[in-house]
Design a protein that fits this description.
single chain, alpha/beta, 16-stranded mixed sheet, about 20% helix, RNA-binding
């Protein structure tokens, strides 16, 4: 019988040098089959390893799934080394293709405790494979003395239950339900989201901007009454409700801004109230919105009447801020915001002298023949240069406001004082007046604030520190507005309720004086970071064509989103407000 010759099979060389088949010599029937990489040292006898994982095993009582001490976890690799190619992106990898946050639990009833030994369900931690005392972090229904991770002998045999779970939260956190806040504006399904920026990116921006150029000034401002600096908790003074008018129109409704737009003075137009909200955006918690209109080379930042920029929040940055409930109360978030806004306006009107005033270069641009007695208000229109490179020109026209001025020591007790026209606060002693309010130190949402009547005179530092923590966003906006206006001094009033159950009567307990730049430093507020945020938002808006947009802060996430909206968006709200006003007049 003739011997048969042994013939070697053809060897396919891989020119890429990698381990595995070459695509050039791959048979057609294997062409569309995905290939999973593996190491040359791996054993190919096992085609599925169900024990490879994070050390959890189903059925802790069995030998294969035991997770007790002394043995390997899950029967996987001894050294814990990951399999070759397990981190590579291939067709066998699992990806979350849908947002799990969009799912909601329909049945929120808690199930009863499980009964039985520790062999049922997942066993975690040391000693979970033995005994029945699963303890904290396990799933057994009953635990022995060792059930809290002390590794003492359990009640039902074996050594005690699992170790203390590593994800323990604060005291009684399990009682707190996740609070979902409503946005400042309802997002229509037809709106297109164009941009999204998280606060972490915004907090890292920086831009150095030179001092502004004041182009004009309008209005009449009154002298600040220094008698309010001597108020203490022992000689408190009631907060009055003066019958005076204070205007704060939006950018598009400002006749001076309309003239500046026609003269093409700048590329961007805004007010200090709107701009301070952008510059302090990383500190905000509640939702807010800003309307953006692009018309050619012009960008206009507007607000909604009665929107977030016109109201003041209370304890927004507290660990447990006030919330709105189904039954409206005087300590709900909405009621407190309205109360704080009224206090802030009335306090600024009350603390000035009516017989000592100064007229700026032009009269109040918003006054009409039907206007009643006007409150003290000075409007300075300034231009900031936000250019980064020499070959670009990005200028911002801004309307800033001041509330009063400090009269010179030799000034007359009454009459008109000449402060200059358009010097913009250089050496004039311009003043901005702000007010903090206290509602009830024992009510929910008070933010652990001390009682002002007992602590304000003796422990003012503790009161100020608590307010800086609970109202970081609001107070940072005040500091930025004062800096933008060129104010030399900021007066901060402490106003409390005459009775904690009455939100209509208030008393002034004290007034503090501070420099805006020093106050911003105490708040750790960087104006350079604020200008970086403004320039970034401007660049994002100029990327898109002419139209109307809205910048919305997510009420539940530290994110800002830019939406494209129809030209008639928010028109219904304005028409509705006008109709209500006409009905009230009738």
């Amino acid at each position: 019988m003739a011997a048969r010759a042994f013939k070697l099979p053809p060897l396919q060389d891989n020119p890429d040098g990698s381990w595995g088949p070459s695509m050039a010599h791959l048979p057609a029937k294997f062409k569309d089959i995905p290939y999973a990489p593996y190491s040359k040292s791996d054993k190919l006898g096992r085609f599925a390893d169900w024990t490879e994982g994070d050390g959890r095993a189903l059925g802790g009582g069995g030998p294969a799934g035991a997770t007790g001490r002394g043995g390997r976890i899950g029967g996987g690799r001894k050294d814990g080394q990951a399999a070759y190619g397990s981190g590579a992106t291939n067709a066998f990898s699992y990806f979350h293709v849908e947002d799990e946050a969009s799912f909601s639990l329909v049945d929120n009833k808690t199930g009863g405790p499980r009964r039985g030994a520790g062999g049922f369900g997942f066993q975690r931690g040391r000693g979970a494979g033995r005994g029945a005392g699963a303890g904290r972090g396990g799933t057994s229904g009953r635990t022995g003395p060792g059930g809290y991770g002390r590794n003492q002998p359990g009640q039902y045999g074996g050594r005690g239950g699992a170790a203390r779970a590593g994800n323990r939260r604060g005291w009684k956190d399990w009682e707190k339900t996740s609070r979902v806040r409503e946005g400042s504006v309802m997002i229509d399904p037809s709106w297109r989201m164009l941009e999204e920026i998280d606060f972490l990116r915004l907090s890292k921006l920086r831009l150095e901007v030179e001092p502004a150029e004041t182009i004009d000034s309008y209005g009449r401002i009154y002298a600040y009454d220094k008698a309010y600096d001597r108020i203490t908790t022992k000689n408190e003074r009631p907060l009055l409700v003066p019958e005076k008018t204070r205007f704060n129109p939006s950018t598009s409704d400002d006749p001076v801004m309309q003239k500046l737009i026609q003269d093409d003075v700048a590329s961007i137009y805004a007010t200090d109230s709107i701009l301070s909200m952008l510059m302090c955006a990383p500190r905000s918690v509640f939702g807010w919105d800003i309307i953006v209109i692009r018309d050619g080379d012009h960008l206009i930042f507007d607000k909604r009447d009665g929107g977030p920029s016109d109201t003041l929040t209370v304890n927004e940055n507290a660990a447990d801020p006030p919330a709105d409930t189904e039954k409206e109360t005087i300590n709900s978030a909405t009621s407190l915001a309205l109360e704080a806004t009224v206090i802030h306006t009335n306090f600024a009107i009350q603390v000035v002298k009516d017989d000592v005033y100064a007229d700026l270069a032009n009269p109040n641009p918003f006054a009409t023949e039907e206007s009643e007695q006007l409150a003290s208000a000075g409007y300075y229109y300034k231009v900031f240069d936000l250019s980064v490179h020499e070959d670009e020109e990005v200028k911002l026209a801004l309307r800033t406001e001041v509330d009063a001025f400090l009269p010179p020591t030799n000034a007359p007790s009454s009459g008109v004082i000449n402060l200059g026209t358009t010097t913009g606060g250089k050496g004039e002693g311009l003043v901005t007046v702000k007010a903090l309010n206290e509602f009830d130190s024992k009510a929910p949402g008070a933010g652990n604030a001390p009682d002002w009547r007992t602590k304000l005179d003796s422990q003012r530092g503790a009161v100020v520190a608590t307010e800086m923590k609970n109202n970081s966003f609001k107070m940072a906006r005040w500091a930025v507005q004062s800096i933008l206006a060129g104010a030399d001094v900021m007066k901060l009033g402490y106003v409390s309720r005459a009775s904690v159950r009455d939100n209509t009567r208030h008393v002034i307990l004290s007034t503090a004086t501070m420099r805006p730049s020093e106050f911003a430093a105490q708040l750790n507020m960087s104006v350079m970071n604020g200008w970086g945020i403004v320039r970034t938002i401007i660049d994002l808006c100029f990327k898109h064509p002419d139209g109307k947009y809205v910048l919305i802060k997510d009420p539940n996430k530290p994110v800002i989103r830019l939406y494209a909206v129809p030209p008639d968006a928010f028109a219904k709200e304005e028409d509705g407000e006008d109709d209500m006003y006409e009905e009230d007049q009738e």
